[in-house]
Amino acid sequence: EIVLTQSPGTLSLSPGERATLSCRASQSVTSNQLAWYQQKPGQAPRLLIYGASRRATDIPDVFSGSGSGTDFTLTISRLEPEDFAVYYCQQYGSSPWTFGQGTKVEVK
Amino acid sequence: QVQLVESGGGLVKPGGSLRLSCAASGFTFSDYYMSWIRQAPGKGLEWVSYISTASTFTNYADSVKGRFTISRDNAKNSLYLQMNSLRAEDTAVYYCASMIKGWGQGTLVTVSS
Fold first, then answer.
1. First-residue to last-residue Cα distance in chain A
2. Which residues from A are below 8 Å from B95, CB to CB?
3. pLDDT tens digits in sequence order for chain A, 108 residues long
4. From the list A37, A58, A97, which residue is nearest B50 (CB)?
């Protein structure tokens, strides 16, 4: 089973700042099949990025994904008030599919 | 636009059964693998099962193997999850998901006596 470790656990930033979230896999993610999600309280996760770097439909370009193999990054270039949430990474290249534990982006 | 709408959740006693459904629209359902993912109250996300486009391949988390069955009907643009022998630890919001097209809003399953 591929274990995904997200860091940091909590990121305290101000609106307008850049956020960099990390997701590290215990072994290589097959075909870079890695996704990023945003989840706000009481809501379903929202798909942001799939295939490590492809933005999902209607996702603004302030969100970008990068990385390959075992190290992946989600970057939010400029935080808007609505971007403060929990972010999860997930690998879907090997069974069982697994999720990271999440990074909370909070207002500083 | 893409819509995934789950239904069928509810309160069930331990050992009971439920069948979840997911109605898809806004994309060519038959072209995509589909999955079920769950989230227990206050917890993180847990993958449950996936199914290939033509139902040729399915896979399950160890925690549900032998108890849950995933299926799909491409003619009806629908995904299903038959859940048998339910346990308290199966209590969660269940999401229908495509790794490329997005997720539904979820349906709550509560297993309690």
1. 35
2. 44-45
3. 999 999 999 999 999 999 999 999 999 999 999 999 999 999 999 999 999 999 998 999 999 999 999 999 999 999 999 999 999 999 999 999 999 999 999 999
4. A97
